[in-house]
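Recall the central idea of this unit: under ordinary conditions, the amino acid sequence of a chain determines the structure it adopts. In this exercise we apply that idea directly, starting from the sequence alone.
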Amino acid sequence: MGKGIIGSITTLLLLAGIGIACWYFLGKPENIAEAKEGLGDAYNRTKDQIDKFDFGDVLDSLEGFDWGDFFSDDPFAGNMTVTGWNEKFIERDNGGLHLTIVNSLSAEWQEEFDIAVADWSASSALVLTVEEKPVDDAWDNEKKCERQADKMIVCNGNFGETGWLGICETEIMNGRIISAVAKMNEYYLNKAEFVERRFTMCHEIGHGFGLPHTDENFYNKNLGNCLDYTNDPEENVEPGQVNFDKLEDAYLEVEEEERERMLLRSGRLEENMDGSVTEAIGG
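Accordingly, the structure predicted from this sequence is:
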């Protein structure tokens, strides 16, 4: 009987302790309404702490993967034409496309981003302004990659086993781009080699300008530009002259003679025996 009484007292003390702890946890409420409010606040605090952790797995490397498998869902695949930005962003006699790129990347992506922007800025048809968006690692992908009108967002996040390393989603109105979001997928790229991350960054930003691929065969000789599909990106980590030519054609006022030379270089014009030229349409 004595043991039963001691056990009951111990249980009551334990319950009392739990009750006091809950009372403190809920902010010392004085009535039911305050207790409910405290419970809501406690839930939000706990959720915020959980959201700070990334429970998603990432690959240790891309070794052994066929890069051809990563671009099957590329929205630009199969389309070899330039989709230009809305005319309000273009000053054809003053630098071409004037565009703001929002850097919504975490700290470990800054080098790849800076290099890519510097490389693309070498084009005479681009005037780029970088806007920094301070990123909290606790933010979800949707917040980091939130679309903004009239701008290109560049962001990173663990989007999971999607099948793509990076993707650029452009918003089109009346056949022209009005916003773009270039995403780097941490699931594949978090521990990838620097050249793989650099290629992906350059590639997706290039799509953000409206550029198509220069080649979609992963296994032929590299063309030396980041819009060339490749299974070995080391030689394709920056834009090439063919990309700059397409930007100039899309965004600058080009003299007819120079335009003809650009089209000849791109293969869209064929020179005839009599010196005249024929433009290839479609295909």
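Residues 71 and 165 are 8 Å apart (CA to CA).
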